[in-house]
Structure of Phosphatidate phosphatase APP1 catalytic domain-containing protein:
Amino acid sequence: MISSSRFVVGRRKYAIMSLRGRNRQGASSSTSSSSAFESQTRSERGFLEAESSLEASFTAKGSEKAAGILSYLGTRNPWPADITKNDAVWLLDNIAFRNKNGHWQAEFVSAVFEGKPSAKIVDYVGDVAKLLGLAKGTKEEAVVESRIVPFVTEILPGRQVHVNIGESKQRLRLGPGGRNGISSDLKRLPDAADGATVVSTADVPSGTGGILEMKTVYVEPEGWAVISDVDDTIKITQTSDPTGILRTTFVSDPTPIAGMPQLYAYLQSVVTPAAPWFYLSASPYNLYPFLREFTAQHYPHGQLILRDSSWMTIPGLLSNLTLGTEEYKVDRIKKVHSWLPKRKMILIGDSTQSDPEAYGDICRKFPGWAKLVLIRKVTDIAAIGTEKKNEPERFEKAFKGVSK
């Protein structure tokens, strides 16, 4: 059985599960339970209707310029294209770890797309504004236009990006990217001290836009680490409501959950500033600049892990946050475990999505790795099935077979 207690931070209630020892045998997966919650929420909150109303205008066009078979090959593409001054490049912050041979390495993620958004951006903004009931020419509509750009800018598959690593003379080649314009490469790095932050820059032509600078934090194999959900755990997103997601993403000022910045500052003081933080969200990579700025303003620095699907589609944003979140999060946390299997992990999430089920799966797969699980019991947003999602039976089922 799970020993569950509660505490209050900023008037928000949490379930706390302190875990130790070995897991019981024969625990079954709770995927069906989280899928049922997803289906109920999507049906009763009108997600399909909202997605259908946006589908006609938000059709991904990035593949039109790269319809050739080579764009399917990703890093195996024999004829990658270089970056031009008309492109935009994003370099994502990451965590460096020691591989099995003791060498430093890190996963480098980059994205490449055209430097200017689609000429139809006015139509796209109008569709979102109409769905949210915004009047034309308002300040809110202008905010929508600025934030919607990453969703209406054509992706550029098959591009390779060169990166200069810190003050060293090492130069890495990232990519080429696949059909979604994103590349993911494990690269060996020069030596650095535990907790060191190395700033690297994209080696691109003058005039290239985007996020051309990234931070790599070096962490040794042992110590503490934190994996935190983002939406409705540390940031108000209203993931149980389609218009709520669109409003908090494209209109409202990004708002932290009350008490969470203070809690995370306290946790950082306990696990030491050198402990790595991972922010795991089911949002697509389109939101990386938005979420990076938000976490930098309110929370300890860490690596953002986002979905690489549904690039250039707002309906995809809605489906990403409400479909298959358990499987996605389990897969990404397994990757973190492969990097840092000896770290003592703290897992933090909320009850609106499938965080309890995902974290329960991880606790069963890797006994003893997670030392503490915190689940925010969400009661302050309009959500279908909120009471059922917060029932003790749900948490008991999600963590079935996990020892105290």
